[in-house]
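I had to read the description of the data format several times before I understood it. The format is easy to grasp once an entry is in front of the reader. For illustration, here is how one protein appears when written out as sequence plus structure tokens:
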Amino acid sequence: MPKGGLIGYQDFSTLEIRVMAALSKDEGLIKILNSGADLHCSTAQQIWPSELAGKSIEEIKEKYAEHRSRAKAAIFGIAYGASANSLSESFNISLAEAQGIVDGLFQGFPGIPEFIKESHAHAIKHGYVVTALGRKVLIPDALIDLNDKTKVGLRNHALRFSQNVRIQSPSSELAYICSSHIWDDFKLLGMRSRLLGSVHDSIECDIYPGELIDQLYIYKYHGEIVPNTIYPWLNGIKMKTDQETGVSWGRGVEVKRFGFTKDLNYFDVVYSGGNTNIRQMLEEMDGYYDYEVIDRLDKDPYEKPENTVLEPNTHDVKITLRLKNNSRVLNRETGLMEFKSKYHIGDHTKLGPIPPFGDIDLDIQQERDRSAQKEYLEDAVHQLR
């Protein structure tokens, strides 16, 4: 990474749960995810309705933290193919209590058990399942005769795998395809930033000096806009991504929100993280970005005793940076974000109007070109096979 360069990191939030909600078409789960509500508190309310009825999210987090923790483990566990037995062992509770958690989850989100049943039935009948992106996954053990008592474990494992692979496979491939789109835009826009790689649902890149603004937008666009625009099977589920910027792996600072100022001359980005990480990031940016810190909030400030050396990240800081607009993606005359990837829908996608400050609105004014969707899906499936 050259002097002045940064590391950009993007992680898909609750990706497997979003894919499971899309495939199961469970209206309640889709509504929770799209509303931005706390997923795990909302799940806990579904599992323990009588106990948590009328409780606020804040109250559940504070007074019913164990319920929230178990709800989180349960819904992810179901997505990964877990059973009441495995939840019983994980939580160190009785099998009956674990089964009650699973039953509560299924009652609250009835689309999930229907999706599981459908996956099992297809695997039992055909010995394979097909993922949302068209990948055929052979599961021969699902064909084992129920009368063969010596292989019941193999068959049960195969059935759990049949539901899990339909979630895990497209989740992973969504991240891989997103990284491919990001790399396309880096090259087509003449940027010198480079994709470093991806690990399941996270993507990392080397941000070349001066290219931070476009990196943030390109990540957000391909992570949140493109999937729901080109994949009808997502059934309206909104993708959510979290971004970090830093100087090295594991030392990133969370991106809270960003957007252009109303006159489009400047770009504001709010960062939150450890004071040492933020200081190192700003030191790296010095001389390569025209910026100023226009707001700073120290949370739990650390008072430095005399003759004491500050340890890294002794307290958290939230800062707002204002950068001079040097974006290649933004067309200042039209106010449109002009992405170049061949898979983006339409000539331009308007992310706006561009807000004076705050999160860009990625949910409106998307061009949904159905022929482009069909062409993209056919091409993507061909490449993945």
Notes: The two ends are 34 Å apart (CA to CA). Residues 27-109 form one domain.
